[in-house]
Design brief:
Length: about 475
Amino acid sequence: VQGDAADRGLFHGLAIEESPHFAKAHSRPVVWLNFREIRVEKPGDSLGKLIKAQIPYYLSEEQIDPLLSEYLDDAGVYAGDALKAFTVNLHRAYGAAPFVLIDEYDKLVMDAVGTPRFNEVRDFTKSVLSAVLKDNDSLGKGLLTGVNRISQESIFSDLNNLKVCDVFRRSVYDTDFGFTEAEVAGLCTPEELAVARKWYNGYRIGDEKVYFTYSVMSYLESGTPNNYWGRSGTMNIIKGGLTYERIETVTSLIGSAGEMKLRANVKDRLAPEDMAAFPSDDAFYSLLVQTGYLTYDRTDEQSEYDIYLPNTELRKVWEDFILSSLLMEQAPHIKDALALLSSDTLERFNAAFTDLIDSRLSYIDLPHGKIEDLHHVFIAGILAAIGTRFHSNREAGLGRYDICAYLPDKTVIFEFKEAAGSADTPADKRPALLATAAQEALKQIHDRDYAAEAPKDLPVYAVGIGFLGKTAAVRAEAL
């Protein structure tokens, strides 16, 4: 195949040159298609353009089969037939059945989730894959890669003998999904290895834990650890599936910096239909694990996993996501208010934090009866967004506190308490009721000794927040 000698030279002196499989390089044509480049609006035309871009590399004008040209002239209708005809044409021209590599096969379908074109795009994807992968004597091998494991019933029901390698299944390919510890150690200095391990390690694939390859290489190239993650399409689906309960769970996972794990029922495959309507908890957390936004440890139960945040980069992904999608304007204000909190500035902190909650929460809607969740999620979400480590709803002393935040110079324990009253309570009666609730919250922190497990080398502050509807009063004191 074209470029044989020149392309082989790219690997001179590298380990792959010693592989017994290297002799097979350039032994047959390879059709590579990235479904990321296919538009939801005109999938057939987009695929036709991808096929046309491949043709000049392998076939001269004289070698192009008239049937292939005919299908490509109307690719909007015959895209699947065009792809199969291309493999037949290559087989005839080279005497070797081509390999077909389809990258990000799931991207097109997931982009269409929740849109009027979903059924059309799903059926298009199914027809294309069936055309080229089923009963095609001119196919040497087909390889599909993607982020989501889409269920066989949705896309692959017409296909047989698929071998699946995913994040849950043990296989000989576990270490091929990312860099192993030994591989990263071979690439890095000891100092770089320590940084890479903290930032990019911990994704479980079958029985292995691996590093995210692209981020490690980006770090080594730039010399700076950073968030190199970029999967915005899936992130939009995640945003659409967030409830206040899920926001609280995710922010708790973020705040614990990998210490907290969530026991969840996780599916090894998802039907896009599960995500088109509002997803269940099982579908939502399965999506997070499949797409790498969280990872897992196995439990004794077959479908139950302990899921958690594996590294700093993913914490940054979630922080940036929450900051940009939910709490963009509020984060700097709470950061400034927490900086005020000291024994000499308690009243200034109380005023600043009360103003923050009163003015910011008024823009956030929550179903009736969930107002305590609103305050809890608001504070936890912003703590996560500003990169503060914290624990939520954790046992300490003689009870379970609401939030304990671990700042570099202090520990802050938050307790929320609903004030007596209702939406009809007169405005002039509210301040006293709110102040009483805030003092009761402080008393609870004292009486139940929530500071028992706080670090001993830093000052500890109790913050009681009394609320009535979306108005609040804040009282703080040093413990």
